[in-house]
Amino acid sequence: MNPLDKKRILLVDDHPLVREWLTNLIHQQPDLMVCGEAETAPSALSAITTGRADLAIVDLNLANSSGIELLERVFRAGARGYVNKRETAQKVIEAIRRVLDGKLYISEKTAEILAGRAMRGQTANRSAIEMLSDRELQVFDKLGQGIGTRQIAEDFHVSVKTVQEYCARIKEKLNLNNATELLREAVRWRESKNSG
Length: 196
Description:
The strands form two sheets. This protein has a three-stranded parallel beta sheet, sandwiched between helices. It has a two-stranded parallel ribbon with strand order 4-5. By secondary structure, it is mainly α. Helix content is about 55%, strand content about 10%. The chain has two domains: about 5-110, Response regulator (Rossmann fold, 3-Layer(aba) Sandwich); about 125-195, Arc Repressor Mutant, subunit A. Helix 4 (about 90-100) links the parallel strand 4 (about 80) and strand 5.
C-alpha cells in the first residue's frame, strides 16, 4: 500500500514503552502508520500542526489531571473516542478504526462510569465518597489496593506531599481521624465496589 494512502496517527504519551507498544501495534496494520510522537501537551500541539495526523492518541494523565474529568472535557472539545490502555490490542485497533470512520468509540466500562457520574449529578443526596473529586477518588482507590503514597505519587507524576494533601482532604470529607481509618475505609470501599 502506498504510504500516502495510509491513515496517519500521532501518539501523545509520556511513557516511551506505551508509545513503542502502540507504534508496533499500528504498524502491523497495512493501512495505518504513526506520523509522530510527543511526550507533553506543548510538543503534541507542535506535532499536530507538522504531522498532518488523521487521528491523535492522547494519554489523559499528561497534565496530572483526573482521567474521567478530562475525558468529559475532551469529548466536549471534539474528541471522538476513548480506549483504556488496559484494553486488548484488538480493542485498541477497533477504537482507532471506528474513530477514523467518523463514529464514536467509548469502552463499555468507561461508558458505565460516565453514565454513573451523570446519574449521580442528578441526585440530591450524594454519599460522602461521591463528594470526592476524581483525583481524590483515584488516590482513595489506590489506597484500597494497598498502594503506598510514594508509589501513588510516582503513578500520578506528583510529589508525595501532593498525595498527602489529597489524603488529608479525603479524611476531612469522609470524617476520618487518622491514616489507619483512611486505609481501612479505602479497603472496605474497594471490596464492596468489586463485589457489587
